[in-house]
């Protein structure tokens, strides 16, 4: 705990900074600036999703960038506002803007605490289908909430996917031509820029094309803002210019960040504790500067990776670029058309939904597929937090159900003696026999055939008290009949230790059965056996 | 499904009635009348606990008695109002009395539906510690809610144990001498009558004593009512005379009934489906006659058993006696002092709490002890329904935790060949590998020693998709190094079938390893092994 090395692991900048050189600096700068160009429009867009002023989304890219450079352990991860956190925040911001800063602070505190207490293993209880279903539900809700901005309709953007869609269609008559045109144009041009692959004949100059693809969000926003400004100069304002939840937020924030870190870390294992400390510090520090909650962003992390980032210092360059834009360009923000931002958000949502999990779920594990659908359906109808809760509960029920039906592998054999033979059933007890399997275990032990039942406790570690009671009642019932129970190889104080059967040890089961059930006086109870 | 025998099993009266005779009739009559004498005061008391008029508690003994005689499968069980159901009902009765009848109807419908759909296995998910803790919390709450009546203090009786105790102590100055005296006298005399064991020198005449013990509740109520009536005749009224929840109620009702049936059925197994049908019918039918929810009562079932009941017909005699009391004695009900009834309830609560589960929990299973305490603490502070929910959630977490740390038993051995030997690790995969164990399984497979890792899938049935992905990433990492993975004896479409390792079968592991990892071209990757 107390040596220098373990402290340095907790502040990773002390590890990579001594080996820093000019080449790394250049590559980090290029990657950082590329990511920064995406962070500006996305930050503004996500602030608007949450119902906050545009600059809040930028503030949340600046301080987290600096803190992640100090505490972050995964070079590719870029911390900033994300669409999902923004969607969760909407409900609170509707009451007061200050809730966003409070949420950021509390999210940071909870994550930091979980990291310090090394409780990262709790994340294992949220399964991949739940994360995937939650992401799909979030993408649907966020996209639906942008319909209002994209078409500049009246009415509210709705708290859930269902409400947003209903609101949109009940106000569909108020669709504004110019906003719709600009929004659709944004989406189309983003997809076109995305499709500019190196093999495409459309590309004129390779370098120019690569950069325009990487910075496509910024390019589109710049173009749209310029158009809007021109309209403004000529006295026209055809576009609507700039002007959408608590304990679940830290969970979602850290889930997003860890899932992204794991996806990009490749073969290196992710230090979950360190990631929690980093994301926690990012949120705590940035909350003092009016930021919304921030965490690892999938799209920007992918961009960072593609731009060849070398160290977490890339975050510093991103933060610097965003800081510059806040300082010198904040006047321009009000000319960014909302429908352009809505288009950017919708296109970003397409890339975060991943349906590739569905075929293996269908082939391999229908119950997990059900959990995925449960998460999506509850998420889009009742709200995102309820979706994640329903998914986690569904997963817990799956585990409970399989725990309630343990396989008690039974082997049958005969032990012969002077005047006959006894049928022996060897029942292998599972590692853990839990309360939910009480009835199942009782039923199996009652119906197993054999004059002697040997309970094989070699792999058994624990049995709940209810199971012990049930097994004892089965044994006391069986004593009246022609059946004997032996408990084989159970360690003292472990599992089935508490049942009322003779405890036997040794490798030779034939000898053990002969000794305990045939050679001694109890032979009488087995007489009449052919 | 459609033969006569299976229909007769669903109406057990058709089975026992043809064999009915005079001896059975006499014994059933004695037992039924004895139980009836207890049903009258307890029924009135529990109606008052729920905040209902006294006769409602009696109505709920009459019709369920008749219905259980027709549909019941366990002769000892006596169905009627219970303290726990009354406590759960309080909250709803506070809004309107009619909710009690509605609750009775709905409770009956839900239980009947569960029975018809054969969903009795769902009850296995409520463990013994949760039932025990819930009973203890209910007894504490019910006793505390009677403090107000016992001492006739002002203020409310409180919705939870904590509130009831706080209310009592904040109104302690309003304690009424006469009520307190009568209440304490009731408790003392009930305990004295209970202690009249056959060996006691106090007993004058054996038969008389046995009957007074069995009918002690009725005796005490009769005496107290007589005293109160005398006071009334002489123009004095020193005693206050007669005038604590939805989906959880069916659950609690059927849990109580099944637990009691199991306790008294002895070696015979309980037909859970039939019990559900019986209790469901009891509640549905009796709800049309202004009854509160009814289920198997522990104290009265024990009395029924002790009185030597022979068939469910005992219920009919109980119902008849209660019906007589409603018809001819309802005028007398208003002279029953509330503090006497409070005393009866408190003494009944002592007998339903069972602390004998605690020592085995302490010795054997600390985590189950924690679940017990969790149920009690949440039950007495937040409310009984929350207690049962917290306990069930705690149990689910215990199962999840053990599922997240499966034991991957590893055996090490060497396989020798011409110029060296390879270390082989044989890792036994558990039956079900669930999503929560993703990190654990990944860690074990990364750190296991050996040049060849053989995954033993002989007992493996299922693995969640997340686990397959993690194992695949461990395998693809290992391929770069000097390690090979083999998958041994996995059935197609089962469990680990989806991983990217060579699937091998056969008994001779030495030969399999030689064939797949040494004899073919891959030997190069294992060269340099000593």
TrEMBL record, chains A, B:
GO terms for biological process: transmembrane transport. The chain crosses the membrane at residues 29-48, 68-89, 101-123, 177-196, 217-235, 247-265, 309-329, 341-358, 370-397. Residues 25-375 form the SLC26A/SulP transporter domain. It is a multi-pass membrane protein. Keywords: Membrane, Transmembrane, Transmembrane helix. GO terms for cellular component: membrane. It is found in: Membrane. Its main location: membrane. This is Sodium-independent sulfate anion transporter like protein. It comes from Danaus plexippus plexippus.
């Amino acid at each position: 705990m107390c040596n220098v090395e373990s402290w340095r692991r907790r502040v990773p900048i002390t590890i990579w900074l001594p080996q820093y050189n000019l080449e790394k600096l250049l590559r980090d700068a290029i990657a950082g600036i590329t990511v920064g160009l995406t962070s500006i429009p996305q930050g503004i867009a996500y602030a608007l999703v949450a119902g906050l002023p545009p600059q809040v989304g930028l503030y949340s890219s600046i301080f987290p960038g600096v803190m992640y450079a100090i505490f972050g352990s995964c070079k590719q991860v870029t911390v900033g506002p994300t669409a999902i956190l923004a969607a969760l925040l909407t409900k609170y911001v509707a009451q007061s803007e200050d809730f966003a800063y409070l949420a950021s602070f509390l999210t940071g505190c909870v994550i930091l605490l979980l990291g310090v207490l090394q409780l990262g293993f709790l994340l294992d209880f949220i399964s991949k289908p739940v994360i995937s279903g939650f992401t799909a539900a979030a993408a649907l809700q966020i996209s639906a909430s942008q319909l209002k901005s994209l078409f500049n309709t009246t009415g509210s953007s709705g708290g859930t996917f269902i409400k947003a869609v209903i609101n949109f269609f009940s106000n569909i008559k108020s669709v504004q031509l110019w906003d719709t045109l600009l929004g659709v144009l944004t989406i189309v041009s983003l997809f076109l820029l995305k499709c500019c692959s190196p093999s495409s004949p459309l590309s004129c100059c390779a370098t120019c094309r690569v950069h325009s693809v990487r910075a496509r969000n910024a390019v589109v926003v710049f173009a749209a803002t310029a158009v809007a400004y021109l309209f403004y100069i000529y006295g026209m304002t055809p576009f609507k210019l700039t002007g959408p939840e608590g304990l679940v937020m830290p969970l979602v924030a850290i889930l997003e960040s860890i899932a992204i870190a794991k996806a990009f870390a490749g073969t290196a294992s992710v230090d979950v504790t360190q990631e929690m400390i980093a994301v926690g510090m990012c949120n705590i520090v940035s909350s003092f500067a009016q930021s919304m909650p921030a965490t690892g962003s999938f799209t920007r992390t992918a961009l960072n990776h593609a731009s060849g980032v070398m160290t977490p210092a890339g975050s510093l360059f991103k933060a610097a670029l965003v800081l510059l834009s806040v300082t010198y360009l904040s006047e321009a923000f009000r000319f960014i058309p909302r429908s352009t931002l809505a288009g950017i958000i919708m296109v970003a949502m397409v890339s975060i939904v991943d349906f590739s999990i569905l075929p293996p779920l269908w082939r391999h594990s229908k119950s997990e597929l059900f959990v995925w659908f449960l998460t999506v359906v509850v998420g889009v109808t009742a709200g995102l937090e309820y979706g994640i809760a329903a998914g986690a509960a569904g997963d817990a029920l799956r585990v409970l159900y399989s725990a309630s039906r343990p396989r008690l592998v039974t082997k049958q054999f005969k032990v012969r003696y002077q005047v006959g033979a006894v049928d022996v059933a060897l029942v292998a007890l599972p590692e853990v026999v839990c309360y939910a399997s009480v009835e199942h275990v009782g039923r199996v032990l009652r119906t197993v055939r054999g004059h002697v039942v040997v309970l094989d406790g070699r792999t058994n570690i624990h049995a709940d008290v209810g199971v012990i009671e049930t097994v004892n009642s089965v044994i006391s019932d069986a004593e009246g009949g022609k059946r004997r129970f032996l408990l084989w190889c159970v360690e003292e104080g472990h599992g089935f230790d508490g049942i009322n059967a003779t405890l036997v040890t040794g490798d030779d089961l034939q000898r053990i059965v002969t000794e305990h059930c045939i050679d001694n006086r109890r032979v009488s109870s087995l007489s009449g056996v052919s």
